[in-house]
């Protein structure tokens, strides 16, 4: 395996080394963009209106953006763009899965770029946000400056199998609770069983299922169990847990709306662009092997394994290295 850099950082250094988040930011612009007569996207911009555009892509699918997501970027240099994907956060209708596919989201990003009169932008995304960054980049390589990715997810069957079975080998109690929520006769196909409940029109049916789904993933997401409650983006309002669970299950149920292995097959379309991957060594939601496979053969890529971190972007080592990655891109972009 050649053509990229793997950096192993010592556990103590990965917590203390590097800068922390930038100060809180207030948007200088925000709005609602009508996408198709049904879905309306919330978007906002922070930082330098004349700066280099960077797009933050949230995870889930369905999690939405939060104020802390603005703080990974130098506001004096970057024009920071954030948006809530279909059905998530402040986008409307909330928790809606109609016309909600990977292809729709890729097109939504392009609509937002056009709406904001942006020529090219840096892609920044973790977990599902990394998937979407890659999907957009492969579709529109001429519109991307590069990629900062965390907790890589490529949407393959093996990753779905890991979500259902692999994580429970490490968190058996969380896995037992996840499956025991379902009647015994339905436990052989938990995705389909949860999906039926999450799309049920009755709140008495979908709300308990949403809580059970979200609890399973949250239990497996953090290496540092003492992270603050706001460490995971859970959107806003009473619909937030439902949006996360319903939309996420919708995408898993439909195999992420992508042919098997499509991103790896087509990633050569963006191999000419720079990419930094920050990967928690103990990421149990998106195992490190996926990032390792993505990096194979990508010239100039930087893949950093953070040895005392799991999946959450707010774990100290992950958080600081993401900020460092955006600063490294700042210097690269300044140099032209």
Give a structural overview.
With 336 residues, this protein is an alpha/beta fold. The protein has 2 domains: 4-153 and 257-335, Rossmann fold (3-Layer(aba) Sandwich); 157-255, no CATH class. The chain contains 11 helices and 9 strands. It has helices at 11-16, 102-115, 128-139, 157-170, 172-180, 190-198, 203-221, 240-253, 262-266, 288-295, 316-335; strands spanning 4-8, 29-34, 40-47, 52-57, 78-83, 121-126, 144-150, 275-280, 301-306. It has a 9-stranded mixed sheet, with helices on both faces.
List keywords for this structure.
globular; 336 residues; 11 helices; single chain; alpha/beta; Rossmann fold; nine-stranded mixed β-sheet
Question: In terms of topology, how is this protein built?
Answer:
Layout (H helix, E strand, L loop, with lengths): L3 E5 L2 H6 L12 E6 L5 E8 L4 E6 L20 E6 L18 H14 L5 E6 L1 H12 L4 E7 L6 H14 L1 H9 L9 H9 L4 H19 L18 H14 L8 H5 L8 E6 L7 H8 L5 E6 L9 H20 L1
Parallel strand pairs: 1-9, 4-5, 4-6, 6-7, 7-8, 8-9
Antiparallel strand pairs: 2-3, 3-5
Helix pairs in contact: 2-3, 4-5, 5-7, 6-8, 7-8
């Amino acid at each position: 395996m050649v053509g990229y850099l793997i950096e192993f950082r010592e556990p103590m250094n990965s917590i203390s080394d590097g800068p922390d988040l930038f100060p809180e930011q207030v948007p200088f612009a925000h709005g609602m963009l009508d996408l198709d007569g049904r879905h309306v996207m919330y978007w906002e911009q922070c930082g330098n209106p004349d700066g280099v555009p960077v797009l933050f892509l949230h995870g889930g699918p369905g999690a939405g953006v939060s104020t802390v997501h603005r703080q990974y970027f130098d506001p004096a240099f970057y024009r920071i763009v954030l948006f809530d994907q279909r059905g998530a956060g402040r986008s409307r209708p909330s928790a809606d899965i109609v016309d909600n596919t990977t292809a729709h989201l890729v097109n939504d990003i392009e609509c937002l770029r056009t709406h904001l009169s942006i020529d090219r932008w840096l892609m920044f995304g973790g977990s599902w946000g990394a998937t979407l960054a890659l999907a957009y980049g492969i579709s529109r390589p001429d519109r991307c400056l590069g990629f900062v990715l965390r907790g890589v997810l490529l949407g393959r069957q093996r990753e779905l199998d890991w979500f259902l079975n692999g994580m429970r080998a490490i968190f058996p109690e969380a896995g037992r609770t996840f499956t025991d929520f379902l009647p015994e006769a339905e436990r052989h196909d938990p995705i389909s069983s949860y999906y039926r409940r999450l799309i049920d029109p009755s709140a008495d049916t979908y709300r308990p299922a949403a809580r059970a789904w979200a609890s399973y993933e949250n239990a497996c997401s953090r290496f540092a169990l003492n992270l603050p409650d706001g460490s995971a983006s859970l959107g806003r309002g009473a619909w937030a847990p439902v949006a996360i669970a319903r939309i996420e299950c919708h995408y898993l149920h439909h195999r992420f709306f992508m042919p098997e292995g499509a991103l790896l097959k087509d990633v050569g379309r963006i191999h000419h662009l720079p990419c930094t991957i920050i990967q928690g060594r103990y990421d149990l939601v998106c195992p490190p092997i996926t990032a390792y496979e993505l990096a194979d053969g990508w010239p100039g890529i930087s893949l950093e394994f953070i040895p005392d971190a799991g999946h959450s972007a707010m774990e100290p080592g992950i958080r600081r290295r993401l900020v460092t990655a955006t600063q490294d891109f700042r210097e690269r972009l300044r140099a032209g």
